[in-house]
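Dear colleague,

Following up on yesterday's call, I've attached the two folding results inline so they're easy to grep. Please treat them as preliminary; we haven't cross-checked anything against experimental data yet. The first protein's sequence and structure tokens come first.
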Amino acid sequence: MTIVYSFDFSDAAYEGLNAAAGIAARLERPLVLAYAVGPGVRTLGPELRKKLEEGTRARLESLTAELKSGDPRLKVGA
């Protein structure tokens, strides 16, 4: 079983993330951070869309690294 947590970089998402990470660590199950964008992103040009995707991925990777350093039992990806 994998725990999937929908994450949007809001304050509420950060608050819930700690709980999701704690549950995943205690159960020794992987945690996957999922970030979805609205349909309006399709209207952006390809270059802007690519920059948005790269920036979001970098933020998620930084967040997963931070979570991993906080609890060695945690297996997390995005």
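Below is the second protein, in the same order (sequence, then structure):
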Amino acid sequence: MLDFSAAKAALQAFVERLRSILHVPRHLGAGEIEVIYRSFELDPRRPRDLDIPTDEMLAKKLGVGSAQIDAMHERLRS
């Protein structure tokens, strides 16, 4: 069984820090914060000065068409 107590404590500390930055009183929004984890891959081999659109770069890298790239972006947005 995995123990997520350290991660939960870190997340609670982050939320408290965020509340203090945004000046949100502790009694507001208690239990109403939803955290959604989304993974993504950074490509350290991609040249920084590459001057092509991101969609075109992804299509070439992944070997897929523009419809699949659009579907991928939609999945990330949902």
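For the second protein, one point worth flagging: The longest helix spans residues 5-22.

Best wishes,
A.L.
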